[in-house]
UniProtKB/TrEMBL annotation:
This is EAL domain-containing protein. It comes from the Bacteria. The chain holds residues 544 to 842 of 843 of the full protein. Residues 31-285 form the EAL domain.
Amino acid sequence: YADSAMYQAKTEGRGNFQFYRHDMTRGIEQRLRLGASLRQALDRDEFELYYQPIVTLEAMRPRAAEALLRWHHPQLGLLGPDQFLPLAEEIGLATPLGHWVFGAACRAAAGWRAPDGAPLQLAINISPSQLRERALVDVITQALHAAGLPPQQLCLEITEHLMLDDTARNRDVLAALKGLGVKVSIDDFGTGYSSLSYLGRLRVDEMKIDRSLTEHVCADSEHAAIVRAAVAMAHSLQLGVVSEGVENAQQHALLRAIGCDYAQGYWYLPPSPDAAFQAWLAGVSATPAPAGDNGPAPS
Ligand code: C2E
Ligand code: MG
Ligand code: MG
Ligand code: MG
């Protein structure tokens, strides 16, 4: 745990003998403590969804927003999903937490006003345990209904790792989700190191190229070649392509030239609380679509 020393110091005070205990014992204690507070966090309303836009590379117009989970830990402050989702998964909290995400994200998305009146899609990440859950389709149906959001506006992001887990059960769930009318996107594409044959078998709508490929796309011609090939492959399968983790104008311009459809990254807007996201949305809506497309959107 990255902030272990800080956690220890804040909760027990320096000088406490526990501070000097063996690292492993300390790690276990902290996981137990973190797990205990994680169990109470939903009731205590400590979770918040941040939103990050996905824009068209052509005109930098918002087309979707991804919901990204944050935890306001009472002692540790704002935590990202990598700091608590694996533990939540282990102690069986990923499913109730996932239900909460669906409800909260659909409610928020129902209040968004997109530029040009075009509907803005909502992208939600699915955890491994949610995909195994029988009630998933019902949970999604209910969340959409309660918020008055059409299924076509929801896109579920499933990591390439989970897609590679090509079981009959996975295929059934994906078929049921498609039947509902929601879109499905392959998240973190390019990190699976594995067979591409699942792309032909599973009917998905979109591919998100992982940040690790975007990161070096300008500096390294091999990375550019891989991205170019991934875009060509996605297009030949009639999939839209999003590049994750765009952090500067050079990456934006190169990905646009390569023919990638959409992009997401700090350069457009970092993940932001709903109010800040909506303020950004109002800002781009008031700005005419740039012809030259040279500057970042206001943020
Ligand atoms: P992801 O789905 O691949 O989400 C994109 C991650 O990249 C986010 O990290 C986002 O903050 C980060 N990011 C976006 N643009 C940039 C950029 O320009 N540069 C850099 N360095 N990073 C960028 P975050 O929010 O920490 O989320 C991490 C992962 O946690 C997500 O990866 C997703 O797999 C998972 N996750 C987040 N929210 C949820 C949720 O509600 N449910 C589930 N099951 N998983 C979630
Ligand atoms: Mg995602
Ligand atoms: Mg991703
Ligand atoms: Mg990623």
